[in-house]
Structures are given as C-alpha cells and as structure tokens.
C-alpha cells in the first residue's frame, strides 16, 4: 500500500502538481438488524480504494478508483491532473494551503474488545433480549433493534512529506418501539433516535448500553404517548435532555462555524452561515453559560482520530467561549484566508471523496446545574427528550425541532406526559436565553452517524458532548 | 454494445461471466448477485469559479444467499476472482451463524421491458467540457454583477442482477445534472436541470432562469406568517412527492399502519393524479428493481383517491400478491420504494397560475424538509431562494424565507390549478419525479 501511495505522489509531481496527497482506505462494516422478534438483516460490506488530490496552476483536481494496481494508480493521477487543469480554466483565486504539514505516525482507536471478533450469535441474542422486553408491552406494534460496527484502515501521504496510518473503530446500537392507532404513530427509542447511538470504540461500548434493560420502558412510553395530551402551544421555559441538546449544538453551532460554508463553498447545497468573519470575536452567540469546543481528542467520540484527512493533528479549540463567538472549524485552504492555521477538521467519507470541513466532537461544556434542579426552579415549562424531527434554514438561524417525548413542568414539578412536542427559535436568541446547563455527572458524548454535506453527497460520523440544558421564553408546541 | 469510450465500465459479457461464475460456485440453495458499477464526475463552483472537481470509478458486488432457511448478505467493491470467493464465503458464513428466520423469497425469471436510459454524449463528457459549461454560467452571473454557485455532474453506470432461479437483468444508464444558486448582495435564486442526455441541458436557459430569479429576489422583506394561498414551483412539488413516497406509498408503511394512505378514500383534491412508472421514457426509466423484478406501473392517487401501493417481494408475499418491482437492495428493512414518480399536469400555463390570486406566496423550492407527523403527512421545512408575494394576480415583491408546517394531503386537498407543463427532477439519491407546478388554496407558514 505504501508503494502505491509513493507511486501516486511521484507521478503527480512529475506531471506538474505543485501539491498532491493520496489516501488509501480499507473499510469493513457489519450491520445487524432484529425486527419483531426475527433476525431481519445481517450484512457485511467491504470497500477499498485510493483517492488522489492534486493542485495544478492553483486549482484542485481529484480522482479515485477502487482498483489498486500500479497501472490504475497512474490512470487515477492522470485523471486528477487533467481535472485540475480544467479547474484552472475557471478558478477564482489560486489555492493557498498555508504552512506545510509534515505529520508522521500511527494512531489506533482504543478498543477493549474488537467487535469483529465478537460472535454474531452474541450480538443477535442481545438484540433479541431487548426485542422481547419491548414485546412484553401490550400495544407495541413494531419493534426494531440494530447494531453497526466499522473498522477502517487509512493511509495518508502528501508531497510535503506527511505519512500517517490510522486504524479506526466504531461501534453502535439502538432499539426502537413503535405504537400505532388509526390516527397516530408514536415512537420511543433508546439510547438515541435514528437507529442507533455510536462511538469510537469496541464491543465494550455496546455492552455498556444495556439495551435489554431499556426495552420495556420505551415500549411503555410509546404506548402511553398514543393517549397523552398534545403539547400545548405557547412561550415557555424549555428544558432539553442531553441527546436533544447534542443535535441542537450540531445544527445551530457546528454547521454555521464550518468555514467552507461561511465562504460560500456549500452555498448551492447545504447553504451558507450567519456567522460571517466580521462577527468573529464580536457576536454574543449565547449567554455566558454557553461554551462550545471542537475537540478531536475526546475519548470515544466519533470525531476522534490521530490526524484529519489533510494530515493535521487532532486538537481542541474553542468555537464559543462564555457566550462569545471566537472560532471556526477550518481546513488548510480556508484557514489561510483568515491568516490562521487549520484546526484539523477535514474528513472524507471514504477514498472516493475529497475531505471537507466536518465537525469533530463539538461539545457544549458542562455547567453547574442538574436536571432536577432545573425542573425545580421552573414554574411553567416543558421538558423534551429524544429527537423526532429537525429542520433549520440554510443560514442556520431559523430552526424547528420535534421530540419523541415531553413532560409538562408546573411549579417546579414534572407533570403529565405530552406528545407531538416541538419547539422553534432563532439561533442567537435561543442560545442567549440559556440560563442553566447540567454538570459533568449528566454530561455525555452523543454520536451522530448521519451528517450530510457536499456534492457528491458525503455522510460524516461526528459527536457532541452535552448535558441537560434550560432555555427561557421559547416558542413550543407548534404542530400546525 | 454502446460506446463507453470515456466512462470506463466493464463489458456486459465480462460482467455476465463474473456473475455466473459466482452463482455456480455458491454452496447455498439460493443465491442472488447484484453488481452496480459507475464512473462519474462532478465539477463544483462557488463565487464564480471552480473550487472542487472530482471523479470516481467504483463497483459494488452484493451477494445474498439462502442456506437452510437462513439468509446472509455480503458486499465488496472489487470484481476479481478472489473478491468473488471472499464475498461469497462471507455471505455463507453469516447465513451459517444465524438462527433460522423468515426468508425473503427470490423471484423467478420474467421478461423485463427494455428501456433506453443511455446517452453516449453523457458518458463521454470531458473535464474541459464541464469546466466550460460552468464558466458560461459564471460569466453570465459576473456580467450581471452577481455570484454563481453550483455543481455540474455527469456519470455512467450499469446495474446487473441475477439469481440462481434463472433471473438475469442488465441495464446501462447515464445521468447529467446541474444545479445553481446565484447570489446578489441581498438575495439569491435557484435553478436546476437534469437529463439522461447531457445535450438536453441548456446552460443559457439555466443561467437566465437563476439570474432572473436572483435579481427579482433582492432586498426581501419579512411577511407575517399565516395561512396563504400558494404557487409551488416544480422544485417544491417534487420534494413533496418524495416525502409522500418516503412515508406513505410503500406497502410496508401501510402494513405497519404508519402510512397516510387510506385505500379507496379520497385523500386529496380530485384533480390530483400521482403514479409510479419505471418504464416511462419521460422520467428516468429502469426496467427492473433491485430484487430482479420487472417494473410495473402503479397508480397511487387517482382523481384524489388513494388507489395503490408499491410492493417488493417481502410485502407482496405477506399480502398474497405479486411484487410491483419496487424492491431495494438486500438486506432491506425499509420496505419497497416508489422511485419513478409522476404527477399529472393540468391545463393552466405555469405563468397563469397566479392570475386569480388576490394575496398569496410564490415558492421556488423547499429546504430541509422533515416529517413531523407521518400519519397525517405533516412536514416542516423552509422556503429558499425565491419566495415572493403575489398580489392581485401578479408578483409584487420578494419576501424573506418562511418556515412551513403543513399536511401534504391537506395542501393537495386544496389544489386549485395545475400547470400544463411538467419538469423532470432527478433525486440526489435514488429515482426521479416528473411534476407540474401547482396552485394550492391554503398553506401554513409558521415563522
């Protein structure tokens, strides 16, 4: 593999590239799904290939192929060079990557139990136990549980002398109970929604979730939701559980601080950002309770690695500090425009995609409150838990989220269960209304394995540390 | 064999030999092999210049085996002898390791109607041609004092599916798509085009539409949210149909009581007719599905009445009927999917849809649409790149983008007029829709 990488870099230089990098990726993925007491799907996918990115005449070209032969590498390089020359016919300013990056080394995700050595029967039995727990609840009509495991070997090499090897593991799982009536569909899932909760680690991550101990509870909640009252509409105090805070951070802080979006590089697809450069170090993004970091060193985070896909070392930086907007997620190309150096967030969805700025582990730092304390201090509010729907505009300002479960809060006490709860707001107004964040004991890293961006589309696996958080004067309960 | 001079795809005869070799060596009672191979490129532009420009060549070999009543699926992205042995042994190992369960049946051989989804011109577009196409859009935007952003992609692919019961289907296809956002100081416009044959993409026509939209959409002012009469352009209508397909048109959604479809009941206005037809050449035709079943036309909503659902092998077996050819690749727990959607045109020229509207909103496209309530088809999302106020039969000014939270069926129940023309919208992921623009009586904007 190293030989192929060197051959690609040599060929690119000979053919006129002022810079080139090559990534060789080998990835295996196993998915296991149990549905309604049956093993519904097991698949085992393998993919390998290489991608070559070149700069010629100040413009980018990229080509990738699944064929790993010496002759194919030459063809891939030729194609990337030709594409770069074509780009140069219609480029804007020449690309400036800033100072060279010469990282070298090896990184491996800390893993206690390699998930690919765990027998399939053990995985299926755990999912079936969780399924049976959901099935014990009368009224649950659909039960589903799934696991996903990924092992990826990556080599990165560049003409600047960088050469890194990484072996990354991910493990994830989740269960969901659905209850239906003639007019309604209600779901409850654990630990998070949209299939699973995922982290960088081995099978120990799955064991710790104790899926089978939560099946009955979520089944009961799904059935109870069918007859629960609708979440009322109004302006209220809102308390979010940690998983919903994680998604709120993702959509309203992670994406708008991606510097490629700010510069319009995603304008025709994912959109732009309201967090433009003149606001840096000036915009009061949130209340002093709000500090948000990007940290690729967070244990077990899906955005944890040794180096990004430009060879920049994993690092920690502040995006929001005590409410003030202080930093972006950057690449070498975008950072140099602001006179900065990349903070290492470029990641590609496999060998056949170019790296883009992606969230690493973008986390709301813990505060000093607790969920119980927040509830006790609230006169008229709603507590919402586990995402059900999410939508935000192309500048990341106007959002609306819905959750699976909600409870009314009256005079400091948790009251009735509510269904079809939603809340809406404008990003800086919302985060400036934050008056309490729970502390470390309730803070957890949540993995999101479905973050879409780019053309052709890419899916990134990212994470967010979050704890239950309270907001004041929020518009809730907008169903129509 | 058609020319595949630039897009490098494996010859059909070689593909067939590879697949049959794999079927022959399988120790399972039933084996299915699906091979998809593609060679594609995409040129992306921002701020009037190319900033990303990529190409890839890849293949997926997916094997499903049924052995002693147990199913295993494995995939690999190589088409070599060793890869074939590896993927087959992994699929068999998965089957061997699991408990007995329900088996999704494989179809037997059936003749599929050939469709023409290939264009030599699309398969042979060069990087220089893509760059020149993009530069033409950027140059027009530049001359208008605006900035162009977007992506222009071309690609060729082939799909083959075979099983040990004697099924073998093969299809070549191409696709060319361009989308563009053009921005001024205080507003933007959007346009896109897609076709099987790249020569149908008219860069000047696209540039003129998006620049005109951007120029008219400067200095938008907010408008009070509420219920408005609306005109939805084809971009928005296609997205609405995609969400109907996603949440309601599947037999699995109906069997699991998640669907909004109440068969035999009127669920939209009487002028609404929606169907799925994989064989219609005015869409993106495909002769068979990912289980190897020939495509059938399915009438989904007829004169406003819910009239049909799409089936795959599993849901058809459960319902005691035949698959309609809407299966997804194994292993699939999502159920069948309608991916060749059509909405019938009406009799009104698109420009006349606004003529009787006293006060309403013109919506170019939706953004970030998500399901809020599947059974009542309530979705939420934003308008984007071209939202205008209609007053007394004409567009009077641009308005700031609005959030909507609206039942799709409720909206279509108030269908007042449908455009005479339709537009092909190729989905980013799978399938395509051919849809008209519509005038709807009531649409709820919430912020």
Top keywords for this entry?
heterodimer, A: 480 residues, alpha+beta, PmbA/TldD fold, eight-stranded mixed sheet, five-stranded mixed barrel, globular, B: alpha+beta, eleven-stranded mixed sheet, six-stranded antiparallel sheet, 9 helices, disordered N terminus
Radius of gyration of chain A: 23 Å
Please identify the structural class of chain B as seen in this structure.
Answer: alpha+beta
SS strand fraction of chain A: 35-45%
Number of discrete helical segments of chain A:
10
Instruction: Report the span from N to C terminus of chain A.
Output: 56 Å
The amount of beta strand of chain B, in percent, is 35-45%
Biggest interface reads: A-B, 80 and 89 residues
Query: What can be said about the biggest beta sheet of chain A?
Result: 8 strands, mixed
- Which spans of chain B of ≥5 residues are poorly predicted at pLDDT below 50? 1-5
* Percent of residues in helices of chain B: 10-25%
Can you summarize the main beta sheet of chain B? 11 strands, mixed
Give the oligomeric state: heterodimer
Number of strands of chain A: 23
What is the 3D form of chain B? Answer: globular
Query: Helical region count of chain B?
Result: 9
Could you say how many structural domains of chain B there are in total? 2
So what's the overall shape of chain A?
A: globular
Compact description:
The complex is a heterodimer of chains A (480) and B (447). With 480 residues, chain A is an alpha+beta fold.
Topology (SSEs and partners):
The complex is a heterodimer of chains A (480) and B (447).
Chain A: H1 2-14, E1 19-35, E2 38-56, E3 59-65, H2 70-88, E4 104-108, H3 120-135, E5 142-158, E6 163-180, E7 185-190, E8 197-199, H4 204-209, H5 215-227, E9 234-240, H6 242-254, H7 259-262, E10 292-295, E11 316-321, E12 324-325, H8 332-337, E13 346-347, E14 356-357, E15 362-364, H9 371-376, E16 380-392, E17 398-410, E18 413-418, E19 421-426, H10 427-432, E20 434-437, E21 444-453, E22 458-466, E23 469-476
Parallel strand pairs in A: 4-6, 9-16
Antiparallel strand pairs in A: 1-2, 1-5, 2-3, 5-6, 6-7, 6-8, 9-23, 10-11, 10-15, 11-12, 13-14, 16-17, 17-18, 17-19, 19-23, 20-23, 21-22
Helix pairs in contact in A: 1-2, 3-5
Chain B: H1 12-25, E1 30-46, E2 49-67, E3 70-76, H2 81-97, H3 120-123, H4 127-143, E4 147-163, E5 168-184, E6 187-195, H5 203-216, E7 226-232, H6 234-247, H7 251-255, E8 274-276, E9 298-302, E10 305-306, H8 313-319, E11 340-343, E12 359-373, E13 378-391, E14 394-398, E15 403-407, H9 408-413, E16 415-426, E17 432-445
Parallel strand pairs in B: 7-12, 11-17
Antiparallel strand pairs in B: 1-2, 1-4, 2-3, 4-5, 5-6, 7-17, 8-9, 8-11, 9-10, 12-13, 13-14, 13-15, 16-17
